[in-house]
Amino acid sequence: MTSNAPDDSNIELMNKYKAVFDSFIGPTEILVVGETMQVSDYSQFNWTMFNAEDRKVRRETVFPEQCRKAFEAGVRLVAE
């Protein structure tokens, strides 16, 4: 799941979804990628609810690790 919200803001809801998916299709995993960048240049928009610099730093530092985790989840999926 990707969203504008912090990573842990919807974890209760995600756990409920996970329980439903687990019961219908088998074991599932949750990987939340929050506080994502919606645009490459926030200065073009009047979006005061986001701190553009924080989003940029997060994209450069946290997002690569989240992508690695997503890739590893895909590898596990194919291997099973």
| Strand tally | 0
The description of the largest β-sheet is:
none
Overall 3D form: elongated
Question: Helix-strand pattern, N to C?
Answer: HHH
Judged by helices, strands and strand pairing, the structural class is: mainly alpha
Q: Give the N-to-C terminal Cα separation.
A: 22 Å
Strand content: under 5%
Q: Give the integer mean of the pLDDT values.
A: 89
Helical fraction: 40-55%
Radius of gyration based on Cα positions: 15 Å
Poorly predicted regions are: none
With helices defined by DSSP (H or I, 4 residues minimum), what is the helix count?
3
Topology of this structure?
Elements: H1 11-25, H2 52-61, H3 63-79
Can you summarize this structure?
The protein is mainly α and 80 residues long. The protein has helices spanning 11-25, 52-61, 63-79.
Explain how this protein is built.
- It is elongated, with a radius of gyration of 15 Å.
- The chain has 3 helices and no strands.
- The longest helix has 17 residues, at 63-79.
- The chain starts with 10 loop residues before the first helix and ends with a helix.
- It has helices spanning 11-25, 52-61, 63-79.
